[in-house]
From TrEMBL:
Coiled coil: none annotated. This is ATP-binding protein. Residues 443-554 form the Helicase HerA-like C-terminal domain. One of its GO terms (molecular function) is ATP binding.
Length: 576
């Protein structure tokens, strides 16, 4: 598209008559200037709310958006059908200044150091001029970054919106909107575009609606064709599942995990050879448990110290079916009454406190939904191991698939299994990011229906709550490691403020609820009251695109994806 002069007199519509830090007012010399015209093959509607205008000031040019049109009070008194046909009116418009630009370089100024002067000319903005700045959003001068074609401006279908992929995801992205607003199609469009750009995406799909996307997608379903191996859970993840109480249970569970790790390290012979004799007497080979009672404290502590890194590693590489009995084995006195160098005997008081914990562990291992998710009984096939699937996807040099869809549609909603599982996947990806796995080849993690997984807490028997924080941590720290987060939700009010405030880009579809709009207002600096006023009336597929790397907010119509998600509702049918 050839760029047109934004200050061509054929586009002229009025003069600046009022200037304030928040907005300017435009005086139209004649109402005929607001009529629809066609110039150089392009259609212009100068007097519509939502249209873009350019302002020719003394030191810089400005782009603004019409937010309100009004008639002077004395002209309102003469309004009639006949007067509209025969008279000329002199409307005024309220225009929100979006950005300023340098006349010579054309570079956008992200801060307004100057304002238009009274009497400055105002013009309808050509579509090519707007598109020029849209294409520069997030563009790095020394990098050839891929672009995503999102759609076109709602005010002008000829103005195509191509946005730098770096600008969209560089500071994380949020796609929000009520049901039916089009956010699922927007996510599908983003995924489709990133696939075309050969960028890798991991999609957490709680409902299975993205199974319809086939091209370039590797799809697995937790509990059906994949499981997250419990040995790759962290101690914190296991605490979420077992819910130990503070006081006796939590320390005993930690000790039991350490003890079973020692057993595993000893049996696999990966400990330091000169330390094996120190721990041999503690291990009961028949039961596979570690029994400290009446054992030498110094030997045990020396073994722990010399094999510290393996024992205190993040994952819980243990035989979890032994854990309930090992917890009871930990219920001993710190020292023997007759010899302070030895561990004490069984403490019945501690045992009584830990029977409930032991029962929860047994129930965890035997509960079907948890076993399908984490394979506690080691019965599922190795090729369905989600860790191996993720690592294979990331290291795929054949570039067969660019999207890994991890579906939760086969899992029920019992026992908070979905939330804990998603949190575990998030923590694993964060671990990879911290280990520099995505530094050279960044990856986008898309979390659909994010309100199901964020701002969730696990409550134990004593009503003590612990929050699931993996995605909050990803939002706060993973950007510098090359792991970018894209969340989609119909209820932004349910997303933690700390997470939402880390989103640098927003694609906001229709929002009606006051608290949802306030959540966006507080999290997005450019989402002022004028922009939020459009949210309740946005049509299907329409959205406000705004963000840190965007010089101005845009009202866009998103292009439908080639392979849309299955997000339609079942239809009522007339009976026979």
């Amino acid at each position: 598209m050839n760029e047109k002069n934004p200050f061509d007199n054929n586009y002229f519509i009025g003069y600046i008559s009022h200037v304030s830090p928040q907005f300017v007012k435009v005086h139209f010399p004649s109402s005929t200037l607001l009529n629809k015209t066609i110039f150089s093959g392009e259609e212009f509607n100068g007097g519509l709310v939502g249209n873009f205008v350019t302002i020719e000031a003394e030191n810089a040019g400005f782009i603004g958006k019409i937010s309100e049109i009004d008639l002077p009070e004395k002209e309102r008194l003469t309004l009639s059908e006949k007067s509209f046909q025969n008279s000329d009116f002199h409307p005024t418009a309220k225009v929100e200044i979006l950005l300023s630009f340098d006349y010579f370089s054309g570079n956008a100024q992200h801060t307004l150091n100057a304002f238009p002067n009274i009497g400055a000319k105002v013009f309808v903005c050509p579509s090519s001029f707007i598109q020029k700045y849209v294409m520069k959003f997030g563009q790095k001068k020394d990098l050839d970054v891929p672009y995503i074609r999102l759609g076109h401006l709602t005010s002008n279908s000829e103005t195509k919106v191509y946005v730098s992929q770096q600008a969209l995801f560089n500071r994380h992205c949020a796609v929000v909107g009520t049901t039916g607003g089009g956010k699922s199609w927007t996510i599908a469009k983003l995924i489709e575009s990133m696939t075309s750009n050969k960028s890798k995406v991991i999609l957490l799909d709680p409902t299975g609606e993205y199974t319809a996307i086939k091209k370039g997608v590797q799809s697995v379903a937790i509990g059906e064709s994949a499981f997250f191996p419990y040995r790759n859970l962290t101690k914190e993840d296991l605490f979420f599942l077992i819910k130990p109480s503070e006081g006796i249970q939590k320390p005993k569970l930690l000790e039991a995990i350490r003890s079973l790790k020692i057993v595993k390290i000893y049996q696999d012979e990966i400990d330091k050879p000169n330390t094996r004799s120190q721990i041999k007497s503690f291990i009961d080979n028949e039961s596979g448990l570690l029994k400290k009672s009446n054992g030498m404290i110094k030997n045990f502590e020396r073994y722990q110290l010399q094999n510290f890194e393996k024992i205190e590693s993040e994952d819980i590489n243990i035989n979890i079916k032994k854990l309930s009995k090992q917890v009871i084995c930990e219920c001993i006195y710190p020292t023997d009454n007759n010899n302070n160098n030895l561990f004490g005997s069984v403490s019945e008081r501690d045992v009584n406190f830990c029977y409930g914990l032991s029962s929860r562990i047994t129930n965890l291992v035997t509960t079907k939904i948890y076993d399908r998710s984490f394979d506690f009984n080691d019965t599922q096939k190795k090729e369905t191991n989600l860790i191996d699937i993720i690592e294979g996807f990331l290291s795929d040099k054949q570039q067969k698939n660019f999207v890994l869809r991890i579906g939760f549609e086969s899992l029920g909603y019992e026992f908070q299994a979905r939330e804990i599982l998603a949190n575990a996947i998030g923590k694993y990806l964060l671990k990879l990011a911290r280990n520099q796995k995505f530094k050279e080849n960044p990856i986008v993690l898309v979390l659909d229906e994010a309100h199901q997984f964020l701002n969730k807490a696990i409550v134990d028997d004593y009503f003590q709550s612990t929050s699931l924080t993996a995605f909050d941590q990803i939002a706060k720290e993973s950007r510098k490691y090359g792991l970018f987060l894209c969340i989609s939700t119909q209820m932004p009010r349910d997303i933690p403020v700390g997470t939402l405030s880390q989103m640098g880009t927003f694609l906001v579809h229709r929002l009606i609820n006051y608290n949802d709009k306030e959540a966006i207002r507080q999290s997005c600096s450019s989402a002022n009251s004028d922009i939020l006023a459009y949210l309740p009336v946005l049509g299907e597929g329409e959205a406000i695109l705004t963000g840190v790397d965007f010089s101005m907010p845009l009202s866009i119509k998103v292009i439908p994806p080639i392979q849309p998600p299955d997000s339609s509702n079942p239809l009522f049918k007339k009976g026979n």
